[in-house]
Amino acid sequence: MSTLTYEVDGRIARITLDRPERGNGITLEMPRELTAAVERADLDPAVHVIALAGNGKGFCGGYDLVASAEQHMEGVSDADAQEGSPLDPLVQLRNHDPSATWDPTVDYAMMSRNVRGFMSLFHANKPVVCKVHGFCVAGGTDMALCSDLLVIAEDARIGYPPARVWGVPTTALWAYRIGPERAKRLLFTGDLLTGREAHEWGLAIEAPPATELDARFEALLERIALMPVNQLVMMKLLVNQALYAQGLHATQVMGTVFDGVARHTREGYAFQQRAAEAGWREAVRERDEPFDG
């Protein structure tokens, strides 16, 4: 695996995002490797609970968009992508040409695979507990929200700034996790929550000081690991069924399609063009400046 690590520690399977030099930025390979790691944990009879975390200064800074926004795709595409497939970076670049016809199914074919990768955490038979330190933004929130429980440092930041331009949350779990009104409050502004606010809003189950994060995370994992696997499987299926009944799958289809649309609006093209001219960081700075960060 090139984007994450996997190890089993007693009854705990540990999946750790491992691109710290890029803020654990998401490439097309990461969701596929995540799915494979979850499957290993699910099939291991010794594993009772899955721990998801990130190496480096933060959990995940979202998609590694520097390359795609600046119109060069090195390191972003799937290493095994078939030429001409929706995962081929040249296909994606051609489909993002403002002077040509946009095919939304190409975007959907690519992004829906990422959604399935993130949702492997949600669909896993066994509980997934996610630890967030530093930052968890944009696409990184897909993995955090697809996990069953979130433990976040009180000073960490979590949210979806691409709601301001060039993105829509594809897993569409915000309303399910914090309710429609608070989801609208975040997505109408792209603002971030602190870990403390995430706990107050019901997004996180715990938000300890950063110095206590690891200990509190491990204590929760150990407590869950005491349960029989079959009981854990039944409890997770029972609770998840409520979200299925509320139409989660249909909502995710809409979120994934809208994400492609957001990259092909007038504003989306302008943002991408600015990133190509001035660099990704400058384009993001200019996007966020009116919101004071």
Can you describe this structure in just a few lines?
With 293 residues, the chain is an alpha/beta fold.
What does this molecule look like?
- The chain is an alpha/beta fold and 293 residues long.
- The protein has 13 helices and 8 strands.
- It has a 5-stranded mixed sheet, sandwiched between helices. Strands 5-7-8 form a 3-stranded mixed sheet.
- Strand 1 and strand 2 (12-17) form a beta hairpin.
- The longest helix is centred in the middle third of the chain and has 20 residues, at 104-123.
- The two termini are 34 Å apart.
- The model has no long low-confidence stretch (mean pLDDT 94).
Largest sheet: 5 strands, mixed
Distance between the termini: 34 Å
Average pLDDT: 94
Q: How big a fraction of the residues is strand?
A: 5-15%
